[in-house]
# Entry
Amino acid sequence: MKVENRYRDVVISSIGEGDVGRTLRVAGWIENIRDHGGVSFIDLRDMYGVLQVVMRDTSLLDGLSKEDCVSIEGIVEHRSEDTYNPKIPSGTIELEAKSVEILGKSRPLPFEIQTSKETREDVRLKYRYLDLRNRKVKENILFRSQVVDFLRRKMTDMGFVEITTPILSASSPEGARDYVVPSRKWKGKFYALPQAPQQYKQLLMAAGFDRYFQIAPCFRDEDARADRSPGEFYQLDFEMSFATQEDVFEVGEEVLYETFAKFAPEGAVVTPRPFPVISYKQAMLEFGSDKPDLRNPLRIIDLSEFFNDCLFKPFIGKTVRAIRVHADMSKSFHKKLLEYATSIGLGGLGYIEVLEDGSYKGPIDKFIPEEKKEELRTLASLEIGDTLFFIADKEQRAAELAGQMRNALGERLGLIEENAFRFCYINDFPMYEYDKEEGKMIFTHNPFSMPQGGLEALETKDPEEILAYQYDIVCNGVELSSGAVRNHRIDIMQKAFEIAGYSEEELESKFGALYQAFQFGAPPHAGMAPGVDRMIMLLRGEENIREVIAFPMNGNAQELLMGAPGELTEHQLREVHIKVRD
# Structure
């Protein structure tokens, strides 16, 4: 038997013209009040929609204010045609109120709900429950729910099993700072919140679960960025046994393509499958970044060897990168571009322009011998009307600066493809790099990755030349995921960690579970973990990831609503054997 709800008969979105003449009770918040003297109107909002309520008995308005939570009973009627509101589904009907019950009274608001996104972020986050009443903000969270539901169903349909892994775990050196939790029971010992379910999902593969996934919470004590929330984030974490890099690519691009094709704005273009695969080395050369935005058509070329034979001393012995642009650029444009170039650390911005007669003009032209100009034309594919910009520095720095200039040129010249989601995989990352501060080799990415060439490569190659089966997936210049083929062989793992300065005893101590499990017949396995928050941010066209999280921390890693982080009482500190030092 259906129990009658005393607050409402229906939600607003379910009321239509077929209900005209019916007496209904609805509930929600007063979004707006319009008093026209002899008749008054309110806009009533619930989670599902907005309904105009007319009060011909104006006494019903007494004591009401914006954002009061109310229950209203009345008769559904047609609006007069000249007052139709095509912006809302209920725009042809209204409810004539017969009674009003205040369920929750609102005090004066700290900001207007409908314009809350224009309010200072610290105020928005302090009153986040009010901010979430804003339709646009709430739609982001509802949209997130729909995407997560789709991801879950998609992974299940593909044969993956959802398994949740522990939140309280042990600290392990995975690249970022841990959040640690003191133990009451074990004096002087600590749990750590997982930076990712990395070791657990690998243990699930060792346990014989063939395909695992979860919408996994991850905790990292990192500084905020526009595309990174401090503290915690969620990822679609998945792992596969008996899988190669290509197997993971196939699953990743199927899930992401179908998600973006379904939820992208109308008319948006999504990279068709299979996604382009670009090596790390190629990405750093052509895009100056391992997170390339493929909506930008500009590419970077290397002219280091060419300029070693020229007379321009600032370029000799340097890595020289160049960007070819075909566009009309005024003196003012060049001036502003130079100002940008110097702001990011370039000493200047050399360039040449190709004139109508095919000759060159620009500050670098006189340093290029005549007999070399045709070679440059061929190397850079120069045509009449082109401008070629030059960036010179040490190799890594030249790549980064060229990447920043490529982005700046693409944006300032309006070259970025609109309403498009351009995906690619970046693979073949270096396994190691030399850390000058540490004075030793360190892992560049995930230490559990399989080196290309296996044990032989570890034993015979210069560590900085060893590539790993590591890969990222990038969309519109945003890294959505990292992943790898895992190192499942104990002998390869021992050698890989030895190069990074770990003894076998340290390996067993820090990664004991994997160290033991891999000695009991572990299968080859691989996986990845696209970030859910970043997916939603891209799909919603938001510039800041905090706009798609229900209760985010601010950029200073504070949760202003609850007041975290906060102080503990002396009693609480004693219980977990902690003393706060000055």
User: Anything to note?
Assistant: The radius of gyration is 30 Å.
